[in-house]
Amino acid sequence: MRIAIGSDHAGFELKERLREQLATQGHQIRDFGPVSKEPTDYADVAAPLAEAVVDGQHQLGIVICSNGVGVSIAANKVRGARAALCTDTWSARRAREHTDCNILALGSYVTGHALAADIVDAFVEAEFEGGRHVRRLAKLAAVEARHSEGHSELPGRALDEGNERQAEAELSPMA
Q1: By CB count within 10 A, which of 137, 140, 156, 174 is most buried?
Q2: Selecting from 3.30.110.10, 3.20.20.190, 3.40.1400.10, 3.10.50.40, what CATH number does the domain 2-153 have?
């Protein structure tokens, strides 16, 4: 299977272990980075990875950050991406079987390496069941289409240049 994997700096070590595990199992792996523990913003990795999965370059993707939330949000901003943050094997399997999720999100500070390896195996081995779930996915696609047409701005506080600089100054390098 062709699998894309990527993380921010907090997920680097887990990404490296999972990449090795998947390659050993015979999967074709594309590493979206990073190549070190230097600070990396999760959106800079998760969004291009999700685009590559949606475009069909890879069958599945795996994204990792400290708690899995940032990478899952970033990946899910890509139309057609269905990223699931999973902390157990049952949820990972169910995400593929019922929701046809194409991206697994993991939190490296939340999930130990051995459990993460089992979660990845469950996600990769599971297959979409189809049937009644196709109707449900069509409804999700309709919601996605409704909320992405003609909406270039998201609700919430916009970061202008001054606020962005202030936010960056308040964050530690490992934030």
Answers
A1: 137
A2: 3.40.1400.10
